[in-house]
Amino acid sequence: MRQSAVLLAVVSSLFASLPHAGAQEVGREIYQQRCSWCHGDEGRGDGPSAVGMFPPPRDLVRADYKIRSTPHGQLPTDDDIFNIISRGLPGTPMQGWNAILDEEDIWNLVSYVKSLSPRFEGEPRNPLDPPLLSQIDVDRGERIYKDAKCTLCHGVAGRGEGEITTRLAFDWGLPYSARDLTRGWTLKGGSEPQEIYLRITGGLNGTPMGPYQDLLSDQDRWALATYVASLDREPLETSEDFVVAAARVDGSLPDSFDDPAWETARVVLVPLAGQVVQDPPSRWWTPTAGTATIRALWNGAEVGFLLEWNDPTETLGGDIFPDSAFLQFGDLNGSKPYFLLGDGNGAVRIWHWQAGDRVEEWTAAGALEIDTRLAAFRATGVWRDGRWHVIFRRSATGDPGFEAGEFLPILISVRDGANGETGNIRAISTWLYATIEPTRSLRSVLVFLVFLLGAVIVELSVLARIRR
């Protein structure tokens, strides 16, 4: 009887393990087809596509996951791994697979990914529970943000401009910079207060962001999470606005970026992306700037552009490449040559500003056809609280020419020297259009008033006839 019971238990155990083994086998096939290109055949993060990626693909054998709902140092839960595969990690080459794989396939992949690391066989995984607090106390969170010294890394403005951000590193020796909290969509674990609470509580394994579970109370961590969520001021980096319209002002153009005159100009949000470059890495995966804003003014004689973008460090050059920005123009006929430095079918004109207010003006018909000429524009830049503000000014006549009602192709690119961005390694936009708003003359106003008065007279005449 006892032998029968033991045999039954063994058989039951074998049958119970069959679905699990089947899930791993299906997951292995999906992994080899979809994931091995980056993470490698054995999950070591050394796939053929991993070269040049930053951050590099996760070593799934080491299993040092940053995005988890568990305490610091623990492995993620199955749900955590499922969410990472499903949603991806914003700001990294890790895409979300929920549009390609169905839910069952993702769960099979979770089963296989866990099998790559022996750590999942015995280490505990105890998920944290965010507190059920409905109160949102942003002011208290701001005080905690300062008292807990979050400003040392993330900066006072939350743009990652803290004084020690350039000295940070991953545990495995790669460079690291504090997250720009104003770009909430780039937060890898999500930008909702509940998700930020988990990052604050459990930290991010392998990075300088340690756990605050034993340093702050639940209430303080929740208040801090709500404050960090409130810093998310930059929209998702997409835009349907492609026209930079220069508003008319009287008198001289402003010399300061915080001059109220700039408030009369319409702000255009410009998405930026890493440039494809000739030498490895073939794609610049980690540009510092994700978006820029641009606005324009003119006074009848000069046109001015205010270009602004986030950069955690002010880099003037020396041992590190200087920060810099470019405005690139096509032709008034609407010609838009190749977006980087033009091509043989169309030349471009480029205004180049470098930190320290050094300027160059180029004409280019490709990367190997660049001619430098005397700069006909002026540019001044101010770095403040993790953000560059650069004003470009030039006569509205000349080459390129700015004419009221015409549309001139314009393109923006910026470089963060502290991030190793130089040459063609930069963040760059697609083509937009710049235009000057037509001047409203007194004659046009008088004509409008005459027509309006005529319409009123005709209407009164008709009413009088009806009454008679």
In short:
The chain has 468 residues and is an alpha+beta fold. It has 8 helices and 14 strands. Strands 1, 2, 3, 4, 5, 6, 7, 8, 9, 10, 11, 12, 13 and 14 form a 14-stranded mixed beta sheet that branches.
What do you see in this structure?
This protein has 468 residues and is α+β, with helices and mostly antiparallel strands. The protein folds into three domains: 20-121, Cytochrome c-like domain (Cytochrome Bc1 Complex, Chain D, domain 2); 138-230, Cytochrome c-like domain (Cytochrome Bc1 Complex, Chain D, domain 2), CATH 1.10.760; 243-437, Immunoglobulin-like (Sandwich). The protein is built from eight helices and 14 strands. Strands 1, 2, 3, 4, 5, 6, 7, 8, 9, 10, 11, 12, 13 and 14 form a 14-stranded mixed beta sheet that branches. α2 packs across α3 (103-115), α4 crosses α7 and α6 crosses α7. The N and C termini lie far apart (117 Å). Residues 1-19 have low confidence and may be disordered.
**Secondary-structure arrangement, i.e. CATH architecture of the largest domain:** Sandwich
Shape type: globular
End-to-end gap: 117 Å
Class by alpha and beta content? alpha+beta
Count helical runs.
8
What's the mean pLDDT score?
Answer: 84
| The CATH C-level class name of the largest domain | Mainly Beta
Number of domain units: 3
**Largest beta sheet, briefly?**
14 strands, mixed
Number of strands: 14
- Share in β-strands: 15-25%
Give the fraction of residues assigned to helices: 25-40%
Q: What ranges have pLDDT less than 50 throughout 5 or more consecutive residues?
A: 1-19
What is the alpha-carbon Rg in Å?
29 Å
Topology pattern, helix = H, strand = E: HHHHHHHEEEEEEEEEEEEEEH
Predict the CATH topology of the largest domain.
Answer: Immunoglobulin-like
